Amino acid sequence: MEPALPRLEDHLPDLLDHVRGLAAEIEAGQLQRSDKLFQRNRDFYTDGRMAAIEGVAPGWQQMAAQADGATLHHVTQVLIALHLLPEYRQAAQRLQTLLEWTVLYHDLGKQVIGGQRDALHAFRSATMAARSLPKLGFSGSTVNPEALDRWTRRVLGASVPAPDGKGSIQDNRELPGILEELEQLFGAGSAVALIVQAVMLHQSLNVVPEWPNPGSLAEAEIPRCIRPALVPVLEGLMLADSDAWQLFEPVSKAKYRNSTLATFVAVRRAIGG
């Protein structure tokens, strides 16, 4: 039996209290405006709290410094959306824990330059999660540093020019090998492997037709890259990620939730799960 997983609230209790409180206010109708939420987040992230999160998720402060804190605000909104998500509320504690860590790391490596979309941030964020999680008490996460370095270089090098000529996108031909090496490093189905896989693949499915991901997997690639055990983690992350953009827009939120759920019906069908 796998030992109890390290909880995000044990490492960052102030952050969890903050997002749970905001989620409760939104659910009760006490907080109804995005500008008010933005200011509440600005007030929360003192230098001391930022330093505490940096210790758990190295790269947090660099991520937060870009685009006037846009990604910092978004990640906070995803944590709020997660706590409002039925799939999270109904989940067993292990899945809840996996989802919390996955959300924390999912955009850690995002680089916002000139307002352009960062199509490689999921791969970059996954390498950062893989290097951080073993230091936080996850069982069986002691890995050979040289092997982890090799894997990191492989992930960061897995890119091809974008079809539109604007930057680069992930090279999905590399994904099966990258994911296999990850499982060799941490163990198939382990907490660290599932968190890192979900972070890595959260830009690999089209869940919102109006905003397609340029590095999306082809249907034939899905069974080679997504294991059944990963589906609830990846689904929960992508539902919360979508909801976070529509926290105060219930019609759009419901629309995109339904399209995300439909995508995962197709994923389960493709992998036979």
What topology emerges from the helices and strands here?
Layout: H1 8-11, H2 13-27, H3 34-44, H4 47-56, H5 60-64, H6 70-84, H7 86-89, H8 93-105, H9 121-132, H10 145-156, E1 159-161, E2 168-170, H11 175-186, H12 191-201, H13 222-225, H14 231-244, H15 250-271
Antiparallel strand pairs: 1-2
Helix pairs in contact: 2-6, 6-8, 6-14, 8-12, 8-14, 9-10, 9-12, 10-11, 11-12, 14-15
Helix share of residues?
55-70%
> Got a strand count?
2
Strand order of the largest sheet: 1-2
Can you write the helix and strand succession as a string? HHHHHHHHHHEEHHHHH
State the low-pLDDT regions, or none. none
Strand content: under 5%
What is the mean pLDDT? 94
Please provide a written account of the structure.
The chain is mainly α and 273 residues long. It has one domain. 60% of the residues lie in helices and 2% in strands. The protein has helices at 8-11, 13-27, 34-44, 47-56, 60-64, 70-84, 86-89, 93-105, 121-132, 145-156, 175-186, 191-201, 222-225, 231-244, 250-271, and strands spanning 159-161, 168-170. The protein has a two-stranded antiparallel ribbon with strand order 1-2. β1 and β2 (168-170) form a beta hairpin. α2 (13-27) crosses α6 (70-84), α6 crosses α14 (231-244) and α9 (121-132) runs antiparallel to α12. The chain starts with 7 loop residues before the first helix and ends with a helix.
